[in-house]
Design goal:
The protein is α/β, with parallel strands linked by helices. It folds into two domains: 243 residues, TIM Barrel; 62 residues, Non-ribosomal Peptide Synthetase Peptidyl Carrier Protein, Chain A (Orthogonal Bundle), CATH 1.10.1200. Helix content is 44%, strand content 16%. α6 packs parallel to α7 and α7 runs parallel beside α8. The longest helix is centred in the last third of the chain and has 15 residues. The chain binds flavin mononucleotide. Flavin mononucleotide (FMN) binds next to β4.
Length: 318
Amino acid sequence: MKLGGVDIKNRLMLAPMAGYTDAGFRHIAVRHGAGLTFSEMVSVKGLVYDAKKTKELLYTTAIESPCAVQLFGREPEIFYKAVQSPYLKKFDIIDVNMGCPVPKIVKNGEGSALLKDGELIKDIISAIRRGAPEKTVTVKIRSGYDKVNAVENAAAIEAAGAHAVAVHARLREQYYGGAADINVIKEVKAAVGIPVAGNGDVKGYDDYRRMRETTNCDFVMIGRAAVGNPYIFSDICRRTEAEDGGANSTEPPPSKRADITLHFEILLEYCDERVAVNNIKKHIAAYSKGMKNARAVKDAVMAAASAKEIRDIVDGFF
Ligand SMILES: Cc1cc2nc3c(=O)[nH]c(=O)nc-3n(C[C@H](O)[C@H](O)[C@H](O)COP(=O)(O)O)c2cc1C
């Protein structure tokens, strides 16, 4: 599958999720078949004025190839400068966040606030294309801010030179609640010529099929259902292999214990022990979901304060 100038091995994307899609988790998602992953959102101002702060968010492992960074901001000229940062050199794809609903972001006119201003959307994308003409540029939008306008926004995104658009089929007002209306994705796909990724509430193979068949989208992006369950990608890959020609491994899958251990060891490569320990806790709680002793795992992990304790818990329970 082509995305701008980049080859993606299948139609499956791991959605960007601040606080969750750290480099360790993205590594495990790719290991289990995700064709493309995105960094957590990174401030363009942070990149331009205080790049050190964003360093942890920009860490990647070699398995993430191609790799995508998600940027958020508002001013086109700051996007223009940010995309020329040496810290972004390794990224094949620059994605722009136009969906974040949280007040802290929206009140600065960033994230989903951009959905109200088609001209500004165009200016941001043009600035990125000028600043980094060699990069593939993608945009992640919602159905709209307080009313549906995804078709108009996607048309503006295409006209300004972006290579693909991902649509989370909810309004900003809905945050993550209520059902996603995937008909909006269908309308966007019918209206633009660039590839479209459908996003919202895909929890397994049946939802994946429904998303593809209802909307005709090119890619399916999965967020919450992959947390603690990167196996959602291998499961969908296996079941779609014949239809989509996905490049899937025939090797036996690694155990959950091996996955969690690797996830944590990658965090330790680039975070302080204290930060790595804190970050892995919610993941381990999610990995334990559905296990008989999930409660005990959660209690133990929440009390852990060192890498050794985390390793002992993983070895003891998984
Ligand atoms: C905890 C959390 C953090 C998120 N962070 C981001 C983000 O940084 N950038 C972004 O574009 N979307 C973000 N999202 C939205 C997801 O990418 C996705 O659009 C949304 O969760 C719907 O997909 P899902 O139903 O598969 O989870 C976040 C969602 C969650 C739950």
